[in-house]
Amino acid sequence: MPNEKSFTEKESLDIITSMIQKAKGSYHETGIGSILWGSVIAFNSFVTYLEIRYDFYIGFDVWILALAAIIPQIFISINEKRKGRIKKYEDDALDTVWLVFGISIFALSAYRIIVGGATQSLIKEEGWVMMKHYLDGRRPDEPMQPFVPSFYSIYLILYSFPTLVTGIVKKFRPMLYGALISYGLFIFSCFTSTQNDMLLGTFTAISCWLIPGIVLRRKYLAQKKAANV
Fold this sequence. Notes:
Strand order of the largest sheet: 1-2
Radius of gyration: 24 Å
């Protein structure tokens, strides 16, 4: 009887442990979304940096890819629901935060593309134009399109928002650190040129999402493997 009781307790403990591991594997973030956004934003930022640095154009606005990134994010969420993935209320809330983030990135990109030309048309109707004047006279004055100085600094602030929320809710330190880095680079970007701001954006995307996403992915796969043992 003592041996039978010992076996039953051990068996029960194993069952409970297995259930806990499966539950963890079912709702833990897979890291795919974070890796997706980290890759896209880092790529967009770095390509834009190269365009400005070496004065060339790839033929289209690379930031359109930010909108395209929303599509696989939606498919990822749908696929997880089809698999019957157990989700907490906080997971649904975080999904919404990241979806709104993606839409906001696209909206900011549209703002950057549209407003300069629209403003130029409006001031032209008023009969004046913005000019670039070189103080040393090395080049003649030339018309210039209106722009928002250090506009990419606004992106850096936006990048920190979903990262900080996810880091706090999930108690995930890599994203908390990434958000703090993003805020620090935002302050730094206020004193740098747009060209260098794009490079800062590359570092921000890598520290906020790509690296934390890889960490999440490894943890998720490890939990999944443990749950299937």
